[in-house]
Design a protein that fits this description.
Order of helices and strands: EEHHHEHEHEHEH
Protein name: Large ribosomal subunit protein uL4
CATH superfamily of the largest domain: Ribosomal protein L4/L1
Radius of gyration: 27 Å
GO biological process, one term: translation
CATH class of the largest domain: Alpha Beta
CATH topology of the largest domain: Ribosomal Protein L4, Chain: A
CATH architecture of the largest domain: 3-Layer(aba) Sandwich
Number of domains: 2
Helix content: 25-40%
Number of strands: 6
InterPro entries: Ribosomal_uL4, Ribosomal_uL4-like, Ribosomal_uL4_dom_sf
Strand order of the largest sheet: 2-1-3-6-4-5
GO molecular function, one term: structural constituent of ribosome
Distance between the termini: 21 Å
Subunit structure: Part of the 50S ribosomal subunit.
Largest sheet: 6 strands, mixed
Shape: elongated
Number of helices: 7
Structural class: alpha/beta
Length: about 210
């Protein structure tokens, strides 16, 4: 699949790049996409929910009443989970929600996500660019020139670029990431994928290992 290379003014440069069929033209696998997105979402969880158990409650350990003859249940101390203000039974404790996923599964998921975007003609290839200083207006102008303003954008750069990142940071529907950090969730979450020429080479090198 050939795609024209555009400049930041939205004009064709006269060059074309061929999207690697091994990455942008595979048979999509929805199940591995589900697994990869599930892992990504699980890794975002803090896992720091905590409730106090009986032994952690600050309260007297004095037995409330005698064992027999009270006409009711047998009670121990006031920290019992059965009483108001007592500990909680089997409450949440800090934990890591992450789980293991094989490397080949993750690679197939990312290839499947990129293939879906290619099939939707939602992949734009942009020549490499840079900003002299952080300026949101310049980033907005690029989106307008590419006729994708108003859509959720994912800009993929070959390496960290502070000026471009800061220029897009205040925009709700735009995100800038490095090619090495492209993941299934962010690709599918975006309406349009804008990839620079060097980023394509980086993605090829990572997903074709």
């Amino acid at each position: 699949m050939e795609v024209s290379v555009l400049n930041i003014n939205g004009q064709e440069t006269g060059r074309k790049v061929t999207l690697n069929e091994a990455i942008f033209g595979v048979e999509p696998n929805d199940h591995v996409i589900y697994l990869d997105v599930k892992q990504y979402m699980a890794n975002q969880r803090q896992g720091n929910a905590k409730s106090k158990e009986r032994s952690e409650i600050s309260g007297s350990t004095r037995k409330l009443g005698r064992q027999k003859g009270g006409g009711g249940a047998r009670h121990g101390d006031i920290n019992s989970p059965l009483l108001r203000g007592g500990g909680r039974v089997f409450g949440p404790t800090p934990r890591d929600y992450g789980f293991k996923l094989n490397k080949k599964v993750k690679q197939l998921a990312r290839k499947s996500a990129l293939t879906y975007k290619a099939q939707e003609n939602a992949v734009l290839v942009l020549e490499d660019f840079n900003f002299e200083a952080p300026k949101t207006k310049d980033f907005v102008n690029i989106a307008k020139n590419l006729k994708v303003d108003g859509k959720k954008l994912l800009f993929v750069l070959p390496e960290a670029n502070k000026n471009v990142y800061l220029s897009a940071r205040n925009l709700q529907k735009a995100e800038v990431i490095e090619a090495a950090n492209v993941n299934t969730y962010k690709v599918l979450d975006a309406d349009v994928l804008v990839i620079t020429e060097k980023s394509l080479e980086t993605i090829d090198g990572i997903l074709n290992k």
